[in-house]
Automatic annotation (TrEMBL):
This is MARVEL domain-containing protein. Residues 37-161 form the MARVEL domain. Its main location: membrane. InterPro entries: Marvel (IPR008253), MARVEL-CKLF_proteins (IPR050578). The keyword Transmembrane applies. It is a multi-pass membrane protein. It comes from the Eukaryota. Keywords: Membrane, Transmembrane, Transmembrane helix.
Length: 174
């Protein structure tokens, strides 16, 4: 995403707003928090993935321990929570506009896909090797978080692809 394109691609047609305010500046409360991101499919999927990751973490640390595979999933879920909260903060408080040189959309895609892959691996290992019901429940919650993060990564990819096609088509007009 180039520095000139300031409109966010997570906005649906119902949430589309002009990013350059020619007539009047936005209200003070609107300029700080991006409510469109919270209600977008990407924001909702991130919050659901956070919820599943937190439930998986609680399931893992509250049951008796098995042979150590639960520690791997507990660590992965905690790291997923930290990374996704940072990404949510960046987009909700519009910090991506303060740093135009960093492509936060690509960073979001990479981090989300990375987190989803690690959740898949850790959850599969925990479900396969632990037979304690709380550990298995944590693994299942990790798989549900994996599904939400995978859907989020697909939504980011499709939005980036559509943005690239739109920019390419508009540059070819003579």
């Amino acid at each position: 995403m180039n520095a000139q394109n300031t409109s966010s691609n997570y906005m649906t047609t119902g949430h589309a707003q002009a990013s350059n305010y020619t007539t009047s500046p936005p209200a003070e409360s609107e300029s700080r928090i991006d409510k469109a991101y919270i209600t977008s499919i990407r924001g909702i999927l991130k919050f659901i993935a956070l919820l599943f990751s937190f439930i998986a973490f609680v399931c893992l640390v509250s049951t008796q321990k098995c042979d150590g595979t639960h520690v791997f999933l507990a660590t992965v879920t905690w790291l997923v929570i930290i990374m996704q909260v940072i990404i949510i903060i960046v987009f909700v408080f519009r910090l991506q506009t303060k740093f135009p040189g960093i492509d936060f959309e690509f960073l979001d895609f990479f981090a989300t896909a990375h987190d989803a892959l690690y959740l898949l691996i850790a959850s599969s290992i925990t479900i396969n090797y632990c037979r304690i019901s709380g550990q298995v429940a944590g693994g299942i919650m990790g798989l549900l978080a994996f599904l939400c993060l995978t859907g989020n990564a697909i939504a980011i990819f499709l939005a980036r692809r559509d943005e690239t096609v739109t920019n390419t088509n508009s540059n070819n007009i003579r």
